[in-house]
Amino acid sequence: MSIRHALLALLSEGPKYGLQLREEFESRTGEVWPLNVGQVYTTLQRLERDRLVESDSPEADAGPQKGFRITDGGTEELAAWLRTPPDLSSPPRDELVIKVLIAIRLPGADVPEIIQVHRRHLVQLMQQWTRLKDEEGDVDLALALVVDAELYRLDSLVRWLDTADGRLKRAPASPPRETAPQIVRRRTGVRR
Amino acid sequence: MSAVLELHEVSKTYLDGTDEVHALREVDLTVEPGRMVAVMGPSGSGKSTLLTIAGALETPTSGGVRVAGQALTSMSRDDRARLRRRTIGYVFQDFNLLPGLTAAENVALPLELDGMSAGKARAAGLHVLDELGLADRASRFPDQLSGGERQRVAIARAVVGDRRLLLADEPTGALDSATGEAVMRMILNACKSGVGAVVVTHDAQLASWADRVVFIRDGRVVDHTAPRPTPDSLLPR
Questions:
Q1: How many structural domains compose chain A?
Q2: Are residues A78 and A99 in the same domain?
Q3: Across the interface, which of A128, A152, A155 has its CB nearest the CB of B233?
Q4: Is residue A30 part of a domain?
Q5: Do B204 and A116 touch (CB under 8 A)?
């Protein structure tokens, strides 16, 4: 999450004080990402240094009572950032995937049982998020969007576990010659 | 309060040619009033068989089933049929509304079949449709309704009268996510008014609406989630 760009977005609505920026950041991200005071003021100082924001008293340290406004450079930076796709090109090193890959090669491991432990944990997390959406989602649009994103992310992991479970059932007993990480690296060109 | 559904060591075996297929093996399941239980498993895991047995549409090979305290195995055919009409509501993926009847008539149908006068049944049907925000759709025929509206009418039909147990098989299967969410909220609201619900699904998002999720594999209950967690535990400390 880019605090830098979130602060620029808030300042694009008009000049604001440091304290106000912190409060608005928290309320708009569904209060899921609380910030500490230091993070806000350090980021504001850097934005000022890079001439993306201006303050009413450049010589003073950034603090709750210091006012900021966005510069033209800041507006351009924000517009460019919004349209820059996040880096999703290389497969993330997912701990869950790694655990299952290790389990299938481990003699005597009960892989379906290991998969079920993770499935249960993920579904329990999803129950908590769904409950939050049921109770708060109607009133808070930002929170509902954050919860949706989290539910889809967790759901994709459950689906992967379900697919892995099905694949294991159908798979021949002998282990593959080449390890999966080797194949993925070869096919996608991902380096360690 | 006593459970609305109790399955005790329920097994179901089919004959496929000369092969025995064990669709369910010694399944125990209890659903309390006001609770939603999701039964989650892949296709062929036995979850739909579990639902048809819970709904008195099929009899188990062995084991006991009680709905609202009444043991199904010791009931006559007629009593079982009455229980199906009065106490149990069904929601299927493909809605199963009768095309020649309006939404209100579809909802009133189970009450009329149970001997209620047409006028009274219609009033009760309209009342439920109104509660579910579908009053303006009451006189439409199923083919004049959207998929989401049809499923909501099907849920209205499943909760009309004094139903205690709601059984749903992939109730949001054919719907987009926003409409599916509306359908799950309706089922949850039915539970908040005291109905016990069983939702069978392969979909974790759907299952996550339930108070408890039971995992089924090869006809066996293999696991279940912990008791209902609180949302507060999610927010960062």
A1: 2
A2: no
A3: A128
A4: yes
A5: no
Q: Which value, in Å, is the radius of gyration of the alpha carbons in chain A?
A: 23
Q: Are residues A79 and A161 in the same domain?
A: no
Which residues constitute the domain of residue A173?
A: 95-188
- Give the number of C-alpha atoms closer than 13 A to the C-alpha of residue A139, restricted to the C-beta side: 4
Contact (CB, 8 A) for A3 and A40: yes
Q: Do B204 and A158 touch (CB under 8 A)?
A: yes
Q: Are residues A172 and A126 in the same domain?
A: yes
- Looking up tokens 């991902």 gives A190
Chain B neighbors of A162, CB-CB under 8 A: 42, 202
Contact A151 B235 (CB under 8 A): no
Q: Is A150 helix (H, G, I), strand (E, B) or coil?
A: helix
Whether A12 and A69 share a structural domain: yes
Q: Which residue in B4, B8, B12, B61 sits closest to B31, CA to CA?
A: B4
Chain-centroid distance, C-alpha A165: 27
Residues A66 and A107 in one domain: no
pLDDT by residue (tens digit) across A90-125? 777 789 999 999 999 999 999 999 999 999 999 999
Are A36 and A103 contained in the same domain?
no
The answer on A75 and A106 residing in a single domain is no
pLDDT tens digits along B101-160:
999 999 999 899 888 999 999 999 998 888 888 899 999 999 999 988 898 899 889 888
Contact call for A127 and B234, based on CB within 8 A? no
